[in-house]
Write a structure and sequence with these properties.
By secondary structure, this protein is mainly alpha-helical. The chain contains 8 helices and no strands. Helix 7 crosses helix 8.
Length: about 160
């Protein structure tokens, strides 16, 4: 049986990670809450199998992203259209309107990425190294690098069209 106190401590320590994944893959607040709870539940179910071969945050990202993808797939099978929320905007208070519009445009373009690309770009924006993104996604480091390069090119092409 997993150590409940340790699990609660880890969840509290990393709740921002769970929230970010939940927010990225949902649009409505109730869906975000449902996904957050589902991620915590999946983390609890697999907590005793965590072998500490990777950092706890790496393991949590992997479980969270897999849970989010499964959640979206279930929603799609039910016939509902899923519109994914953009990443939270991070515009400084002193930013000019033009900069704010470019940031909004970038977020809209990130919203149009496929599920895996969104996860990869989220991890990259979180400052994760290719090796850690590789561990989380199950892709090779080379594949991660290639995908990041392609994602950047795709976003750059979309951003320069405007």
């Amino acid at each position: 049986m997993p150590d409940e106190k340790e699990f609660v401590r880890i969840i509290k320590e990393h709740q921002g990670l769970i929230y970010k994944v939940s927010a990225l893959y949902t649009e409505q607040k109730h869906d975000r809450n449902d996904l957050y709870q589902e991620i915590v539940y999946q983390l609890w179910k697999s907590f005793d199998s965590f072998r500490e071969e990777a950092k706890i945050s790496t393991w949590m990202y992997r479980v969270a992203l897999n849970t989010a993808i499964a959640y979206l797939n279930r929603k799609k099978r039910r016939g509902r259209e899923v519109s994914l929320e953009v990443l939270p905007q991070v515009a400084a208070e002193h930013s000019a309107e033009i900069l704010e519009e470019r940031v909004k445009h970038l977020h809209r373009e990130i919203e149009n990425l496929n599920i895996l690309e969104k996860g990869i770009i989220l991890l990259l924006l979180e400052g994760k190294k290719y090796e850690e993104i590789s561990e989380i996604t199950g892709l090779t480091s080379t594949n991660v690098g290639t995908r990041i390069s392609r994602i950047k090119e795709k976003l750059k092409a979309k951003m320069t069209k405007k």
